[in-house]
Amino acid sequence: MMLEIRNLHKAFGSLEVLKGIDVNLEKGKVLAIIGPSGSGKTTLLRCINLLEMPDQGTMKLSDRELDFQPGRKISSREVTELRKHTGMVFQSYNLFPHKNVMDNIMEGPVVVQKKDKAQAFKTAQALLEKVGLGDRGSYYPHQLSGGQQQRVGIARAMAMEPDVLLFDEPTSALDPELVGEVLRVIKQLALEGRTMVIVTHEMKFAADVADHVILMDGGHIIEQGPPEQVINHPQSARAQQFMNRISGEDI
Amino acid sequence: MNDRQIQIVLDSFWPLFEAALKYTLPLAISSFAIGLLLAVLTALAQISGVRILKFIARAYVWIIRGTPLLVQLFIIFYGLPTIGIILPAFVAALIGFSLSVGAYGSEIVRSAIQSVPKGQWEAAYSIGMTRGQALRRVILPQAARVSVPPLANSFIGLVKDTSLASSITYIELFYKSQQVVARTYEALILYAEAAVIYLIFTSVLFVLQSYLEKRLGRSLSS
């Protein structure tokens, strides 16, 4: 089991956003998290790499175990250590604008993992080719389209060789005609057996790529299972309601 | 102007200009360099989580911004000797101006840092950077670009503020022009001449500032 989350709770002030979440994810599998805005899906994703600090619960990532208790502080060293083994792709890419594409990808391996520069360059170049941007290494982020920037973001996350790849609505900020190129890259990664957690609104994509789907609402998991069940034939009433609403708006 | 006045202007031009080069500019440049370092440290102290650092930084900025620069210079040069600390005019001026640049500059640097999108911090953290690495490698370089226009303005203002150093016996451009007036009684002509020399320096600096902003602008936007 690559990722095990038990009884995760997170509140922002008096607003409870995660109300006791359990997740299991095996190595090489893809988990899609779907649900309405405010359901807690992005918060859950951000708890995995501790961009949000859970209030309560346990999380086991590969062989690293973390126990969250109210009042108990996790050391920043533990937090940083965990983050070196996760990679995140952001909705608004968040590339470093003052560095070119190659430097963006090499930043993690060279500065954080202290890898040799020449070796990091070779790995970065290979990753760039894999996402279809092999000739853009010396470009700056502002010179690329949204879809290209996101693909660089994916390469940057992969450069750290993470145990788990986290995607926070990777295509939500993209023009429709650019969404496909990013989804193709993500699908390729899934076929290669990467362990991934994807928060997305793209239902068809989630159905195509995910091994397991979690539908969240109001801080709870209201349905989970394989995509054929959760997306195509939801069993709980609330899940059916949500999927009906969505398919009404789906193009 | 009659011939005598024209002669006075011509005779005093180089001594005044030289004073600006030898005394005004070095004071401005060295105070700005020290002040900038102070500004960055103060800004970092204000955004750190450490309460005592935040308090000292805020108190420092509040006091310096809340009191006149001229009064600060007098306290350092004329006030400190009464408790046994006697400083040469240049050193007193350097300290006074550095503290001033540090305080005003820290507000510029702090807002520049806070203007960097939160997503940049998150991206840095997501690849395993510590807060220090994120600041050094990702945040400060971006904050630096944003802070160039206001800091350039700050420097140009400082060049003009160095005229206050004349009141604590530092012999720079304005002090020298006062000396010539004392000799020749041509106050209007000499002070106008001093103003023109300041204008020459600030105009050159404004041109340099636009050039710098254009260069930086090109690298960040298409």
Which key terms come to mind for this protein?
heterodimer; A: 251 residues; alpha/beta; six-stranded mixed beta sheet; 9 helices; B: 222 residues; mainly alpha; 83% helix; 0% strand
Note down, in words, how this protein is organized.
With 251 residues, chain A is an alpha/beta fold. Chain A is built from 9 helices and 10 strands. Chain A has a 6-stranded mixed β-sheet, sandwiched between helices. Chain A is globular, with a radius of gyration of 18 Å. The two termini of chain A are 36 Å apart. The model of chain A has no long low-confidence stretch (mean pLDDT 91). Chain B is mainly α and 222 residues long. Helix content of chain B is 83%, strand content 0%. Chain B has helices at 3-47, 51-66, 69-79, 89-115, 118-126, 131-161, 173-184, 187-220. The longest helix of chain B is centred in the N-terminal third of the chain and has 45 residues, at 3-47. The termini of chain B are far apart. The mean pLDDT of chain B is 93.
